[in-house]
Fold this sequence. Notes:
Blueprint: E1 5-11, H1 19-32, E2 37-43, H2 55-58, E3 62-63, E4 69-70, H3 73-81, E5 90-92, H4 93-105, H5 116-133, E6 139-144, H6 154-167, E7 171-178, E8 181-182, E9 187-188, H7 191-202, E10 209-214, H8 220-230, E11 237-241, H9 249-255, H10 258-265, H11 277-287, E12 291-299, H12 309-321, E13 324-332, H13 341-345, E14 350-353, H14 362-374, E15 379-382, H15 384-396, E16 404-405, E17 415-419, H16 421-424, E18 434-442, H17 447-452, E19 456-463, E20 465-467, H18 472-477, E21 481-486, E22 491-496, E23 503-506, H19 521-538
Parallel strand pairs: 1-6, 1-7, 2-5, 2-6, 7-10, 10-11, 12-13, 12-14, 14-15, 15-23, 16-17
Antiparallel strand pairs: 3-4, 8-9, 17-20, 18-19, 18-21, 21-22, 22-23
Helix pairs in contact: 1-3, 1-9, 4-5, 5-6, 11-12, 12-19, 14-15
Amino acid sequence: MPSTKYIFVTGGVTSSLGKGIISASLATLLQSRGYSVTIQKLDPYINIDPGTLNPYEHGECFVTNDGAETDLDLGHYERFLNRPTSQANNVTTGRVYQSVIEKERRGEFLGKTVQVIPHITDEIKNRIQKLGNTGEFEIVITEIGGTVGDIEALPYIETVRQLKWELGDDCLVIHLTLIPFLAATGELKTKPTQHSVKSLQESGVQPDILVCRCEHSIDDEIKRKLALFCNVKTEAVIESIDAETIYAVPILMRNQKLDEVVLKRFDLPIEDNLDLVNWKDFLYKLRYPKSEVNIGLIGKYIELHDSYKSIVESFIHAGATNECKVRISWIHSENISRESAAKHFEHLDGILVAPGFGERGFEGKLETIRYARENNVPFLGICLGMQAAVIEFGRNVLGWEDANSTEMNAKTKYPVISLMEEQKKVKNKGGTMRLGACDCELSEKSHAFDAYRRKEISERHRHRFEFNNKFLADFEKNGMVATGKNKDLNLVEIVEIPEHPWFVGVQFHPEYKSTVSNPHPLFVKFVEAANIAAKAKKS
Length: 539
Ligand code: GLN
């Protein structure tokens, strides 16, 4: 087998240029040509993982099958490639230092002084090559978080320098940069890019390809100028103009021949085998919907939409499948009261109550669910949203006024959601929830089964609290039934109200598994139910 090829993606000028999307788009093109590709993210922060981060800091925490709490870019990698990632796909500075320090404590450095070079850089190198060494991937794309010049990014850039030297032609660097447009003079400016490439060169790294984010098309003259100043070939200066959807970026990159430039540089054959038929079909459905629904997303982090990234993307996938545009109404749960509920929700065709932690905005979530239940509005509750649905039913249908989760009220008389026995001993916050893929068995007469069309499913979890089985019989007698269960742990994973047109609460996170080629069945059915509700409203 030929050696694994490594591609590094660095960022210059400013953050938020979309390194994750460029990496995922290039990977999509290479995968569509038959290569097996994976993408890895190196995050320069000191946290071991983003699991303990407030979503306001970096947006959603994405969870992989193996239970790793990771950066939200891994969600993009999975959604574009339809291939699961794992802990190995996300490395943080915290994790790198932790393992080096643990090795030092075990005496593995044999009395040597432990230093950034070579010990930290060796650890980073190992973690990059670990993916290549599995033999599973022909191409490994490694995205380096942050911007060139950041103090935190230095050990990563140094590692790239060393690997470029060691791997030679099996390694290339793509530098993603910004070409700002000065409206006053009507000009695109290349200077910031020249400076950020210089800064990379000062660290000993020469980029092979420049991907230039811009609001206006960059012409050949600018490409030639950039090539001249930055030591890259003109054909390797790639324009990345703002796109109407992230899913159009692979096509834009294809038009700029990014995949061909990469293959040529690796001396790999450029065959006429690029297959983007399904991708284009998806884009077509996204662009030309036949109907429209309005779905409320009720959560407490809505000021930062990235906190719910995978949910938003799942709606895009499910919308395309239904040929229906999903408009999201972002509603802060802190603003909802019994009196204001109707005003907030009247215009909605579906309601999703989001995952979350803690008490803030929780009562508003309960009022939201009451409205959805009583007014037959299609409802999907995810994780805390499912737990809230159970509590709302306990309070308002079963009449248990102080029904609650012990997360919110440890002393409630009706702890309908409570901690599993093994969670009671847990002291540390990081990495200690029920995390990752778990099996679940569905009842055949249920909306869940209707969506998945099979009995055995596997979904990803991230929570500590669970449905309290002590109360299950009361719920089931009165109209809320458990339609999905984890048989090994005897846990309720899905609840439904059969009397309601579409009311589903799931303890797991379906949004982590929705991809372009595999839209999540629960989202697809939820959007379908909302579409039916919307049509009924109109007629
Ligand atoms: N806070 C709840 C728990 O820990 C729900 C978590 C979530 O929504 N991800 O069980």
